[in-house]
Amino acid sequence: MTPSTGTSESNVNFPRRLDLSQTPTPLQIMPRLTAFVGGPKIWFKRDDLTGSALAGNKIRKLEFSLAQALDLQAKVIITAGGIQSNHCRATAFACAQLGLKCHLILRGGPGDTAADGNLLLDHLAGAEITFVPHEQYSTSRPEILAGIQNDYESMGLTSYWIPVGASNAIGSFGYIRAFDEMMAQIVQDNLNIRHVVTAVGSGGTLAGLIAGRACTSHATPPKLWGVNVCNDAPFFEEEIRGILHELKESYKVPVNAQTEEVNIIDGYVGEGYAIPYAAEMETIRQVGQVEGQVLDPVYTGKAFHALIEECKAGRFTPDEDVVFIHTGGIYGLFPARDQLGF
Ligand SMILES: Cc1ncc(COP(=O)(O)O)c(C=O)c1O
């Protein structure tokens, strides 16, 4: 776990980072999907390849959050999410690798606590889990968290809280760094990428990309788009501006929280978070069959479905290459096997 800083493409002073992920991840053309959609050229930034147990976008954020936790002498990491949270699974495995205790507060149960997908892996990584039924999670999570923190304090153990999705300023440094990494690949291969699309679940990934774009030395960086998989566009615009503000205030990242463009493509949530719909599942099947890539039903399935629909609608034109950030999430497919209809 060699500590290191971020890359140096931008004028950002990165905080300390742990080296837990397999980066840089490849930036790959998807020729068959491009032909299938009928242009523009579609590229995948393969953040689904950041590790196996650590796979996805979360580990990029955790490299910064967990470095801070270690600097604060934390012995226990507490975080929260849905029962199939990719973030919680990545946190559980990163903690195991660092010799830290991990305590997860998971929204769900009773009834949906069968060890499958990410939850199976949480158990495997030895995480302590507090299951909180949906209603209680939305009304009483702060009190539940405070109770858990007090218990560890009374045992003499320093705990460190990572918010849902590690979507705060320290976590979003992971995607400032990822933006730099992607720009270096674009420049090296002389690519003409005009758009970058990512799923938005708690906002930290898009916030980091926006901050990275604001700080890049590149003259014509691509435009950034987020597809929300829950809530709505105004909700995420506020969340993301909040993270940008914190980046500036607490870490002196030169980004203007008021004036940066926050582009959210709304309309692809369906009935709600983690509720897949038929057209999305069809997209997941097509991407598997046409290009041999695996999307997930909660994040990348909805976001990539949006990308295809927005190509048809003319938001992304055939002459403007698009990068889709493949943020991982594969383990969420398994508990959704019934909706895939196999
Ligand atoms: C696979 C996957 N993709 C995308 C996202 C969205 O990222 P963010 O929470 O930073 O908006 C998440 C987590 O929420 C995720 O697990």
Please describe what this structure looks like.
The chain is built from 11 helices and 10 strands. The chain is α/β, with parallel strands linked by helices. It folds into 2 domains: 27-56 and 168-340, 3-Layer(aba) Sandwich (Rossmann fold); 58-166, Rossmann fold, CATH 3.40.50.1100. The strands form 2 sheets. It has a 6-stranded mixed β-sheet. Strands 5-4-3-6 form a 4-stranded parallel β-sheet, with helices on both faces. α7 (204-215) links the parallel β7 and β8 (223-228). α6 crosses α7, α7 crosses α8 (233-251) and α9 (278-291) crosses α10. Mean pLDDT is 95; it is low at 1-8. Bound molecules: pyridoxal-5'-phosphate. Residues 56-57, 86-87, 165, 167, 199-205, 296, 299-300, 327-329 line the site of pyridoxal-5'-phosphate.
Mean of residue pLDDT? Answer: 95
Order of strands across the biggest sheet? 1-2-10-7-8-9
Overall 3D form: globular
Oligomer: single chain
The rounded distance between the terminal residues' Cα atoms is 41 Å
Low-confidence stretches: 1-8
Secondary-structure element series: EHEHEHEHEHEHEHEHEHHEH
CATH class of the largest domain: Alpha Beta
Do you know the CATH architecture of the largest domain?
3-Layer(aba) Sandwich
Helix content: 40-55%
List cofactors, ions and other ligands. Answer: pyridoxal-5'-phosphate
